[in-house]
């Protein structure tokens, strides 16, 4: 994994704006590294999301491989630059592959992302698997507000695998999950990124209200975080993926306000991202958590 940054630059007495500018520069640098390195990303994801997640990774510049059986999991994880695990529609064999690949990633120091889709008391089988996977110390845990809140221990109402909670209300609860992962990423109307390394929460604004209307966008976001994790620090990886999605969603909505054509435009803007576009459109804020 390329070490692109020194996060100590963000723990100085710089102004918030100066520190935000540093973060945006790191995102642009991570995007450039993604194009150059085109990392191989193993995705163990759900049947609804597999095609979409693979296409998003290809559009963004990474190389996806949807290897999700236990017979090939260990050998393939070993040659991958990153791993994405998504529990959207788990099968028995997938769950075996998830355990094998997560353990291998931990042993080989390969960054991996856990997306606990549907975590909660109503889907007990998969939720127990999430609890087991946490033992392998995911690099990033990514989910919607309901999933992250429930995973952090606060039982709230969910609607299937969709979120009924606000990401802004959940990031305080999510701090407890930093005992099990380096970074927590919460998606919603605004996205929030917490980490062990920064004494601030990063808020990412932008995107479009149509993104949740396109199935698998959240799942694809987790895969993109994994891709960025192969080329940069976990904090910037999560931030870069969220900024990439937020800008693509914003620009796609400017072109089309109906779901079908929006989806095409969204994929176009994932592919057409440039460093200059990141500098122009990235909208992030730092929320201090200590004095």
Automatic annotation (TrEMBL):
The biological processes this protein is annotated with in GO are:
thiamine biosynthetic process; thiamine diphosphate biosynthetic process
Pathway noted in the entry = Cofactor biosynthesis; thiamine diphosphate biosynthesis; 4-methyl-5-(2-phosphoethyl)-thiazole from 5-(2-hydroxyethyl)-4-methylthiazole: step 1/1
Q: Name one Pfam family in it.
A: HK
Gene3D superfamilies linked: 3.40.1190.20
Alphabetical keyword list = ATP-binding, Kinase, Magnesium, Metal-binding, Nucleotide-binding, Thiamine biosynthesis, Transferase
SUPFAM superfamilies noted in UniProt:
Ribokinase-like (SSF53613)
Which gene is transcribed and translated to give this protein?
A: thiM
Cofactor dependency? Mg(2+)
| Name of this protein | Hydroxyethylthiazole kinase
The residues listed in the UniProt record as binding substrate, with positions renumbered to this chain, are: 66, 216
- Write out the residues that bind ATP: 142, 187
A molecular function annotated in GO for this UniProt entry is: magnesium ion binding
What is stated as this protein's family in its record?
Answer: Belongs to the Thz kinase family.
Query: What is the protein's known function?
Result: Catalyzes the phosphorylation of the hydroxyl group of 4-methyl-5-beta-hydroxyethylthiazole (THZ).
Q: What is its EC number?
A: 2.7.1.50
